[in-house]
Write a sequence for this structure.
């Protein structure tokens, strides 16, 4: 029995190690939030994905054309984005398991800025097919195209409310700023009490607030405002550009692009913390922009040496966090 003890201990160690690795992979891949963004780090804009700690970078598109504005189906299985790969800017949809993309729109005019509805039924986008930028929606299989705005002035960057009943967008009409409309394009009205005309709206996951970029005193900063126009809050405070906010699913964090330190990178900020509690997530000399949150389970990431697992309570933390 004494001779067998070392072998038993060795076997137990191997089994425990394998179990820890499996737990580490499962917990890290399924629990750590991820964001997608566009980056010019390879000479043209492609779409990348990383976890919210700035780790485990993955490239999702790889084409010589520009590919931007990622948005995900609610089940995390597909990603819509804008691409000029066929010589014209259109909306494409990628199956994240196979990495195969299919063109959703096919028009000589530019189609861009897709936004997948939370109920999965629609993809809103902007198009110049009537001579100016307007907002449309289309079913993910390419059917039932509908024009939602009909203005001489531009309308762009649509975002859905969490219940898929409303769309917020940026309008260049008089007065300009963030507007809200029904999902069928009806009842368009300007978000009340914007301190200045807002840009790049983002709807909070509880449906109560909208984040946007606004220029005050020469600074492009991010604010949030209740949908009824009350409770203006300043989220960032910096002399350079902060824009393109995107709320985390739990509503506690906003990721955004910023010109902090002379280069466009992706940052995150605690919505309820002190102004300027930002954390830098990308550190590349080329432009990183347009962050979007990835639904849980969309594309598992592999564990790295920067990740540790503690068996007790299945805690996980980044070595550098």
């Amino acid at each position: 029995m004494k001779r067998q003890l070392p072998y038993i201990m060795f076997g137990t160690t191997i089994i425990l190690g394998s179990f820890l690795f499996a737990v580490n992979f499962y917990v890290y891949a399924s629990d750590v939030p991820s964001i997608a963004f566009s980056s010019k780090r390879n000479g043209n804009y492609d779409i990348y994905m990383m976890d919210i700690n700035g780790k485990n970078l993955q490239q999702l598109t790889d084409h010589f054309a520009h590919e931007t504005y990622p948005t995900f189906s609610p089940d995390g299985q597909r990603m819509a984005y804008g691409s000029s790969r066929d010589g014209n800017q259109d909306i494409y949809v990628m199956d994240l398991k196979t990495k195969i993309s299919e063109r959703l729109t096919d028009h000589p005019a530019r189609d861009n800025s897709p936004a997948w509805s939370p109920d999965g039924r629609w993809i809103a986008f902007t198009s110049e097919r009537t001579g100016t930028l307007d907002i449309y929606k289309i079913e993910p299989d390419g059917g039932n195209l509908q024009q939602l705005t009909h203005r001489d002035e531009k309308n762009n960057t649509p975002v859905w409310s969490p219940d898929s009943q409303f769309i917020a967008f940026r309008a260049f009409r008089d007065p300009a700023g963030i507007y809200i409309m029904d999902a069928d394009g009806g009842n368009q009205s300007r978000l009340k009490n914007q301190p200045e005309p807002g840009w790049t709206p983002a709807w909070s996951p509880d449906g109560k607030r909208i984040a946007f970029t606004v220029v005050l005193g020469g600074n492009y900063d991010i604010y949030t405002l209740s949908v009824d126009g009350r409770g203006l809050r300043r989220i960032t405070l910096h002399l350079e550009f902060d824009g393109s906010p995107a709320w985390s699913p739990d509503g506690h964090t906003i990721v955004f692009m910023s010109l902090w330190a002379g280069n466009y990178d992706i940052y995150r900020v605690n919505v309820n913390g002190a102004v300027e509690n930002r954390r830098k997530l990308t550190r590349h000399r080329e432009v990183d922009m347009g962050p979007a949150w990835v639904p849980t389970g969309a594309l598992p990431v592999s564990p790295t040496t920067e990740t540790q697992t503690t068996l007790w309570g299945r805690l996980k933390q980044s070595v550098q966090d």
